[in-house]
Amino acid sequence: MTCSGERIELYFDGELDAAQQEETRQHLVECPECSALHSRLLEQRAAIRSGALYYDAPTELRNSVRAALRKESRPGSAFFWQPFAIAACLLLVASLAWNVFQLRSHRAATDLTQIVLDDHLSSLIGNHLLDVVSSDQHTVKPWFAGKLDFSPDVKDLAPQGFPLAGGRVDYVAGRRVAALVYHRRQHVITVFIWPGAAEAESGAARNGYNLLRWNAGGMTYWAVSDVSAADLSALRSLLR
Amino acid sequence: MHAGASLSSDLKFLRNRNPPASQTRGVDLPKADSRLHAFEETFLPHMNAAHDLARWLARSGANSQDAAQDIVQEAYLRAFRFFETWNGGDAKAWLLTIVRNTSHTWRERRGRGGEPVPFDETAHSRESAAPSQERDLVRADDMRALRSCIEGLPADFREVLILRELEEMSYREIAGVTGLAIGTVMSRLSRARRLLADCAGEKTGRPAR
Known about the structure:
The complex is a heterodimer of chains A (240) and B (209). Chain A is of the alpha+beta class. Chain A has helices spanning 5-12, 18-30, 32-48, 59-73, 78-125, 137-144, 229-239; strands spanning 132-133, 164-172, 175-184, 187-195, 202-206, 209-216, 219-225. In chain B, helix 4 packs antiparallel against helix 9 and helix 9 crosses helix 11. Helices cover 70% and strands 0% of the residues of chain B. At the A-B interface, helix 1, helix 3 and helix 4 of A face helix 1, helix 3, helix 4, helix 5 and helix 8 of B.
């Protein structure tokens, strides 16, 4: 083995593997130079570790650290309140998200109201009021079969003052819906029906038109007309 | 003195690891209390090491004694705040890493006030942790010389020397505390020893190495 101060130091610090450690130990016996270096290292270590150079923690420090830790973990400390602060932040975020969601779904509902109204108005302007003209519910209901993936409930309500005029298929919010047309005196009422009952019932009035939405039999109903809101409510009761 | 203190604190540490269950995990202890209890049990036994390192890193400045205590206290509070991030590994190494970082922040905050200060004989004779076991004046002088030589080492060398010789850590552990590569720890330690030997040889008039 060749003499290496680095190796002696690694040996001295116990950083060699067992075999090298043993090999170096043997070398020290034979090599006076390396042995002298090793002795000086030992001497230096003994001096440093003699104890006089070690700064033990004074008692006052122990006491003050313990007191500081107690204070830190007590209610009122920043640490103690941290979980509550985090909880409050999460709550705030959740609340904001919920409000944004509500706002968006409100806007979606509002948009749907507008779509339904527009559809009703465009049917009145153009000639596409009815695809099937019949006051017979047994004619209208089968007519929808094959044109829709659901079967709307069709009732003629002539005895109650809402004669059925017919029906058509429309596109509302990306899907085919059934539109039933009723008359009320000289007014036209369009009742849109599509599957899915999601939101609560609601009513709206726009540009002099009344809209009423309700759920029945797993279907969403929208009634749109320039008749009074009371008339729409009456129709709703009859259709339910 | 050091070895004895370290051993007894280690034994205390071992004893405290297994206290009666009712004392540590009792349902009557509020959560904050049991957290504090667990922390103290793990880290208070290493306060001597924390103080020793902080003191040596603070060196011999006029207020180094107070600074070291402040650093230790701040390091303990930091450790307590981040107790949950401790992975259950070597508690002493984790604590010393925080002490070291705290010392660095401290020094930066003080505008590097703890840097090279000429050796002041009177300051050292007032030293509270002065040698208590020396038998004769020659040995006391040697110790003072050694102390001032270590204090005179550049901080990078001093810290590895203290961690190796006084805290008796392995190269790997020192690398963990300082964030240095093991090879760097090795070369700095070697250089520190040589500088120290040269300095001590000059001061005592004897060749040290």
